[in-house]
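Listing 4. Sequential folding, example run.
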Amino acid sequence: MKYIIEAQNIKDDYKNILERAKFFKEKNIYPTLNKSCALFFEEPSTRTRLSFEKASRNLGCETYYIQGNFSSSVKGETLFDTFLSFKKIGIDVVIFRTSDIMFDYEALLELKLGLINAGDSTHEHPSQGLLDVFTLLEKTHTLKNQNILYVGDIYHSRVFRSGAYLFKLEGANIGVCGYPSFIPKDYPFMDKVFTNLDEAIEWAHHVIALRIQKERHKETYNLESYFDMYGITKERYNKIKGFLMHPGPVNRDIDIDGDLLYKEKSLIANQIENGVFVRMAMIEYVVG
């Protein structure tokens, strides 16, 4: 019962965020928040960082970017002390990406800062999960009983961990496909596990491709054979019933045939566009 209550509260919150993102996109009317936002990124980012920055500026926020490897964290400063400094300087919202999942989130909440997780190592990526749901709902209007297939490096994917949870709240079924070593053993939101991509595509309505996160692997992989087994080829693309997505960055001709990225079934460009509106709604929600 506790899980059901918590899940309903989360669903109410994220539904409000998605409705607000829809308003921003359709009406092109933005409030002026007069707040200050700091973007603190310890890991590389293009789409997430830039769309959060654009979102912040669209809302009339003073926006500051701090690159992690040029911050005092490289000198041994803790995340708490870094965020305390932000608070004392007068920052209202911190949008952060960290390479560490072992930090004391509860202690950060005590600082009374607005906090938005823009990706913590292999754990979560809430804004990507929200914009993936938003993007697919734009096209389908309901995800109830839809089969969503994640393909690739599921084990290291924070996108999967955030997205699968939200898709389940929408009533979707979640499938995963990849090398056996790419599949987490204990994640609760997997309804189907495949090692054969062609069989998985037969089951799926919509496909979300993920890249091999080479920076997190000790072993190396034959990328040509990986594409043959788990890449979205033209033949597999043609068999997809619904839509193809990818959170980026895309490794062309490894994750997906490069000629397919912006074809009719692909929502990759839509995901990038929608990132700004969803992240605007997140910032507005956090500052109340």
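-- end of first protein; second protein begins --
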Amino acid sequence: MPTVTKWAAGTQRRALSIATTYRVLRLVVLVVLTIACVAGETPADTSSDAAGVPAPTATPETTSPPETRPPETTVPTTEPPATTEAPSTTDSALVTTVPLPGEPSPFGPAEGAALAVVGVDHDDVLNVRDMPAGEIIATMGLLNPYVGLLEVREAPSGEILASPDSWADAIVATGRTRALPTTWHELRVAGLTGWSSAAYLAQLGTTDDVTAHIIEILGERPQADTMLDLGLIVADTVASDEPLSRIVVSVAPFVFEAIGEITIDVLNIGDDSVLGFRLDIFADAGDDWMSENPGPFTLRAVERTVLCYTSRGVTEDGLCL
């Protein structure tokens, strides 16, 4: 049989006390370790969605800073980078820096000078261009005086912009002239600013009645079957042979209340200050003036307007400089 060791009563109690103390200490150590583990854990997120399901615990990926680069879909792939776009002022800068053709010329009308269309046939027009020999922006044509002296139309629409019955402020020079193979003047008309050929512009001088002078030259009061024939007879009396004058019917012949009328420009008369003359010719129609052939026409009166070179100008008295 096993040997039983007998302890004294005090010795047995001390052994039990040591064992008990050891158990208590062990229990305390376990409690402390448990508390430490619980304190080191990350608490769970207590927020929940509308259904009451707890939100998942945050992970290291979701706690990192959000990406700041914008989504690629916000930039259309078809657009070029912003750095390749030209400044918005490029086009306007090109417009303002485009040089005018030709060279500046001092031989032109002064700023504010009133101009008139001359030497343009009655069934033709004088073009107004955006620059010398440039694109047509308007046209100017002479009309029957009973309708209007000048007709300005927008190009290419043909819309009537103005029909002034006086040359006073109808066409005004800006003071700029350019010399190409031909000379061009800048002008303002019907609210537009453009360029027209100097060959068809003049400044108007005095107007006087030269009927007696024409009759004296011809030796009689002339008569013709048509107003055109009569007008050419009168024009020949003021035209030059050297240099050869240019004779242009600027307003077509017409008859009103038994009086015929025609306007003829006679240009290049060999004078260094006078470009030529505008002749407004009036005649008495025949007895059957309401018919298709109202002649013969007998000269009634001739009004002559002096045409001055645009490069020379005109005095306040209407004399060519």
